[in-house]
TrEMBL record:
<dbReference type="InterPro" id="IPR019804">
    <property type="entry name" value="Ras_G-nucl-exch_fac_CS"/>
</dbReference>
<dbReference type="InterPro" id="IPR001895">
    <property type="entry name" value="RASGEF_cat_dom"/>
</dbReference>
<dbReference type="InterPro" id="IPR008937">
    <property type="entry name" value="Ras-like_GEF"/>
</dbReference>
<dbReference type="GO" id="GO:0005085">
    <property type="term" value="F:guanyl-nucleotide exchange factor activity"/>
</dbReference>
<dbReference type="Pfam" id="PF00617">
    <property type="entry name" value="RasGEF"/>
</dbReference>
<dbReference type="InterPro" id="IPR036964">
    <property type="entry name" value="RASGEF_cat_dom_sf"/>
</dbReference>
<feature type="domain" description="Ras-GEF">
    <location>
        <begin position="3"/>
        <end position="187"/>
    </location>
</feature>
<protein>
    <submittedName>
        <fullName>Rap guanine nucleotide exchange factor 4</fullName>
    </submittedName>
</protein>
<dbReference type="InterPro" id="IPR023578">
    <property type="entry name" value="Ras_GEF_dom_sf"/>
</dbReference>
<keyword id="KW-0344">Guanine-nucleotide releasing factor</keyword>
<dbReference type="GO" id="GO:0007264">
    <property type="term" value="P:small GTPase-mediated signal transduction"/>
</dbReference>
Length: 187
């Protein structure tokens, strides 16, 4: 019953609270291995869980809707919510919604997608292009570079970047700390 814009706004407020609680060190602990630090990453875990909850919420709502016309309306609503999340610079929820719509359980609903107005198909195609993993998520990175803070980033990609930086570079070179790696990990 809530408007798409209001729902996206409320999601963004909640996501911001969760994201704001994540301390930078939690990203380091997560990347370098929690067991090495004996520290908690509870806030990061909660924020990552939120991504999965939104993604599966989208899939569940669409798949539980038995009437074609209502399912098309629901699909339109989720595309609108995603657009507003992007507008609010909540890229984490934006991606979660788009990935939910891309889920095989939803994408195989051919009749539903067929009935979706072309305007919404176009929006969805643009959203999918932002998720394109080619060239190391170039489309997403260019979009983020143009945005003014504050924003809520797509956390799984941030964690992937930190993991590859960690695993792809030696921590010690000639028994000396590789500070270049450590600076990249913190940035």
């Amino acid at each position: 019953m809530m408007s798409s814009k209001d729902l996206a706004y409320q999601m963004t407020i909640y996501d911001w609270e969760l994201f704001n609680c994540v301390h930078e060190l939690e990203l380091i602990y997560h990347t370098f291995g929690r067991h090495n630090f004996k520290k908690t990453t509870a806030n990061l875990d909660l924020f990552l869980r939120r991504f999965n909850e939104i993604q599966f919420w989208v899939v569940t709502e669409i798949c539980l809707c038995s009437q074609l016309s209502k399912r098309v309306q629901l699909l339109k609503k989720f595309i609108k919510i995603a657009a507003h999340c992007k507008e609010y610079k909540n890229l984490n929820s934006f991606f979660a919604i788009v990935m939910g719509l891309s889920n095989v359980a939803v994408s195989r609903l051919a009749l539903t997608w067929e009935k979706l107005p072309s305007k919404f198909k176009k929006f969805y195609a643009e959203f999918e292009s932002l998720m394109d993993p080619s060239r190391n998520h170039r489309a997403y990175r260019l979009t983020v570079a143009k945005l003014e803070p504050p924003l809520i980033p797509f956390m799984p990609l941030l964690i992937k970047d930190m993991t590859f930086t960690h695993e792809g570079n030696k921590t010690f070179i000639d028994n000396l700390v590789n500070f270049e790696k450590m600076v990249c990990a913190v940035l």
